[in-house]
Every structure is written in structure tokens, then in C-alpha cells.
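pasting for the record
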Amino acid sequence: MSRLGVKVGSVSLKSPLILASGTCNFGHELSEYYDLSILGGLSSKGLTIRPRAGNEGVRVAETYAGMLNSVGLQNPGVDYFIEHDLDYMRSLNTGVIVNVAGHSYDDYMEMIRKLEPHKDKIDALEINLSCPNVKAGCMSIGSDPDQVFEVVSGMRSLTGLPLWIKLTPNVTDIKSVAYSAQKAGADAVVLINTMLGMVIDIRTKRPVLHNNTGGYSGPAIKPVAVRMVAECSKALSIPIIGCGGIMDYKDVIEFMIAGASAVEIGTASLIHPTCPVDITEDLEKYCEENNIDISSLTGTLQLW
């Protein structure tokens, strides 16, 4: 595993592979299928101050080369997580990344205050400023550079934990938003969250999702994600975690060449829960055959 070790700022990970928030809950279910300690980390279900039941009606729709989801941040709330799930995540012998969501500036500050006393059990906080499936907050904050600066700088004043800011692709200029996060004290950015999409049932003439729109993920969004990682890699001095449509080891390598220090896997693990095992084995083989450490690939893109 030594060839697969990476660093995201001050955070050392045994592998570049992180399970994306919302696709692995807190690790309980997937731990029955393989040893999660092979991963670099696990990003928790998106957490909010109070428990959320999520959106009503149909919340998932399959489509070409991907899927749409409109789960709506269903979660048990941060207090329940701290009492029942945080210690379990820590026991998995992999990086513990806690995903934080909110509807307002005050929500995010209160979340930090609740998690700060447990900082010894947390490797990084992934701040969700990009969820497209709630009526307010998250994406509306993450699409405005000024609001991103305000929220991130506020959190920075409350904690020394690494802050990884997960950004929405549903913006005109991702670099300006990412730079605001960096200027406010972010330790890394995560690119990208899902794209906003819609699927229509031609029989009912209504959207399949009862929220009308949802977050589009899967292989089809990978070229967009790779482009945004490459753009931000040239504009930022902080690390980038790549995310979006990763299905195999070649996708991981592509993201790292574009500038990612680590990656997150989401939709692929919903389709094939043990795919991180295969990707890990393929990455190890690739590194051995080429006599390199995986981290040496980061930012080696050569533009024409």
C-alpha cells in the first residue's frame, strides 16, 4: 500500500480513494462486503443540526451514463451521529471525513461548535456548499463567492480541523468560487458535486423525481469534473480532491494528472459496492509496473 499513500494538505491518507458522502452512510453497510481500511478515507452522510427525513416521493432516477438523486440530505442529525456513529467510523482504520451541511451561516457555525469537542476523532471536515436537493442553503451559498468567503472564514475562526470545501459545478466560473474558499482559509476543495438535472416520464408528462430536479452523477459528468479540477489546479495553491464519474483506476489516474491529490468514489460504489477493492488492486499494479508512487501523478497535465 505504500505506493498509494497521498497527502491532502496536512492529512495523510494510505490511498487516494475516499468514499463520497451520501453513498456509504457511515460505513456500517459496506463494511460487511470488504475491509474499509484499504481506503484513504470515508466521507460521512451529509449531516445537519437537526435530523432530516429527506424529500418525499421518488428520490432516485436512472438515466443514460448515470443517475439523478433527490434524497434531500436525509440524516439522523449531528448529535445522534456523535453519540452513535463517530466512534464506529474511527474504528474502521481509515480517514474520518465528516460532511457538514446547512441552510444558513448560523447552521454551519453551530455544526462546527458541536463537532469541535470531538476533533481528535476527525481527520477533516468536508463542508457541503453544493447540494442541489434542498430548497435553501448549500448550493445557493456555494454559488456565490462572497457567501463562500463568509461561511468558510467563519468556520476557520472556530476550528483548526482541516476544512475541505465541496463546491457545486452549477456555476459560471468555478475558479472564482474556489479561490474565495482558499482566501477564507480552506485547506482543500472538493470538485465536483452533482450537476443539476431533470428526467421526465413521457407517460405522465411529469418529472420522475418528486422534487422535479436532482443531482446528476455518474460517468457522464466526468469530463466536466476533470476540466474543473484542471482549471482550479492552475489557479489555487491548496489541494484538490477530484470527484465525478470515477468508475475504474484509469479514471483515478486521469483526475490526478489533472491536479487532484485524492479522489472520491460515489455512484460506482452504488452500482458495484466492492469496486474500490478492484480499483485499489489495479492502482497498485499500475504503480508497480511503472515504478512510481501514485502521488507523483498529481498535476502532471501538459496542456497544448
